[in-house]
Design goal:
alpha+beta; 7-stranded mixed sheet; two-stranded antiparallel sheet; 13 strands
């Protein structure tokens, strides 16, 4: 078996071997190459000590000498080269207290998380696979190296990584590994919100975001997203729905393209439904004002998971308006674009469609026709460059001052008045027409 290895990686392997050391590409790059994918990066493991690696290459960066890692720069591109090592005790459930270097590749691979990540490759020696990673790749299995309870106790982040790899690759989690997930899920309290965020996001934008169900069934989401667990047990007795809130969310995730903002929006768009649920005397469920409630909860969740302000702002705005349904008429759509924002309106249309396709088939044709009409209006608004915000209004505050309006609060009120006129009558968006309307406003 021969893998295609980048020329720069081959150079590093060759230099190390030429000086009497063992050297292999290792981990995710080997796994991805076996799957016919292009690896994001190439990691190298070697019997050479960090100081020996540094002596062999002209340009290096001390990435993590205590853990045996040196970054070797070849033509300005960096490759991490790490000495074979054995990890000491994991005192905090995340990091080994100390590491010891070893001359054994097998010992180094033994400390890794999953069998599919514990393979090494060298062009001259071929594939090294002590733990049957290739077999698990072929069978679509996520399995811990050795005892899963030990692996997850060492590093609780591996609990999230197991589900994430499962979702990315479409693999099943092996039974003992799956059981260990549930037993040790509470150890996620040792993991920072930033690291959980990274793994959650990778899961959400994977080909199988609905594998979040696996995390729920193992008791993992309870540790960092309990609001979503509530959704999984919240029934929706209404003609518009045929799933629990949680299952509806999972279906909607699959229905939308793998964009960070869109997938986070679908995850959180109905997160407030368990809070606002009301069942009437006929046994029918209602979720009035779940949009604003979901927006409030989404903001708290995204803050808790340390998402950046831009992502948080966009997701919360989409969650707030996800259930807003304007008529498929130009005036109504212009106002909708003004409310939601020109930047997010195309995403809002995608959110509405994904949401709709995850509901029951009750009145679906009618719903889709309305959305199709709204989309057509939006396309016309864009094609004709109709004004839907102050940004493209033909009159500015300077124009009003030049027309004799004193600077101050009234400037903003007049601009808003003009925008209301233009939203109703887009042909009014000409400087001379709007300034003529100024007398009407002052009256």
């Amino acid at each position: 078996m021969r893998l295609e290895i980048p020329r720069k990686v081959e150079i590093i392997l060759h230099v190390l071997e030429e000086h009497g050391f063992e050297a292999y590409a290792v981990g995710g790059c080997v796994r991805d190459s076996m799957l016919g994918r292009v690896p994001d990066d190439w990691d190298i493991t070697t019997s050479a000590r960090p100081e020996q690696v540094k002596a062999l290459f002209r340009r290096t960066v001390d990435t993590g000498l205590a853990h045996g890692t040196v970054t070797v720069l070849i033509e300005k591109e960096g490759f991490e080269v790490t000495t074979y090592r054995v990890d000491g005790e994991y005192e905090d459930g995340r990091h080994p207290r100390e590491v010891a270097f070893t001359a054994s590749l097998e010992e180094d691979l033994k400390r890794r998380d999953f069998t599919i990540n514990a393979m090494a490759y060298n062009p001259s020696k071929g594939l090294v696979d002590f733990y049957h990673g290739m077999e698990d790749l072929e069978n679509g299995i996520i399995r811990c190296v050795g005892d899963p309870l030990e692996r997850f106790t060492e590093d609780a982040l591996r609990i999230m990584r197991a589900v994430r790899f499962s979702a990315q690759l479409g693999f099943e989690i092996e039974e003992k590994t799956r059981k260990a997930l549930g037993i040790l899920a509470p150890n996620l309290k040792h993991v920072s919100a930033e690291r959980i965020q990274v793994e959650l996001l990778k899961l959400l934008v994977s080909p199988h975001p609905d594998y979040l169900r696996t995390a729920y069934e193992a008791g993992i989401t309870k540790e960092f997203l309990p609001e979503w667990d509530a959704c999984m047990v919240t029934e929706q007795n209404t003609p518009h729905h045929c799933y629990t809130v949680g299952e509806h969310i999972l279906k909607s995730l699959v229905n939308i393209r793998p964009d960070k903002v869109l997938r986070l929006t679908m995850l959180l768009h109905d997160i407030g439904k368990p809070v606002v649920k009301f069942t009437d005397e006929n046994g029918r469920d209602h979720f009035k004002m779940h949009g604003p409630e979901s927006e409030k909860m989404a903001h708290a969740i995204l803050r808790r998971l340390k998402f950046d302000n831009d992502t948080t702002g966009k997701v919360c705005r989409l969650v707030k308006w996800h259930d807003y349904r304007p008529l498929p008429e130009m005036k109504a759509v212009r106002r909708a674009v003004n409310k939601i924002g020109e930047d997010l309106f195309p995403l809002y249309l995608e959110v509405q469609e994904a949401d709709m396709l995850a509901q029951s088939r009750y009145r679906r044709k009618e719903k889709m026709e309305r959305l199709k009409g709204v989309r057509a209006c939006w396309e016309k608004i864009r094609a004709e460059q109709q004004c839907v915000s102050l940004k493209t209004l033909a009159v500015t505050g300077r124009d009003l001052i030049a027309a004799g309006i004193a600077p101050g609060k009234e400037i903003g009120e007049i601009l808003q008045y003009f925008l209301e006129l233009v939203l109703e009558n887009p042909q009014y968006n000409k400087k001379e027409i709007l300034l003529e309307k100024l007398s009407e406003y002052t009256k």
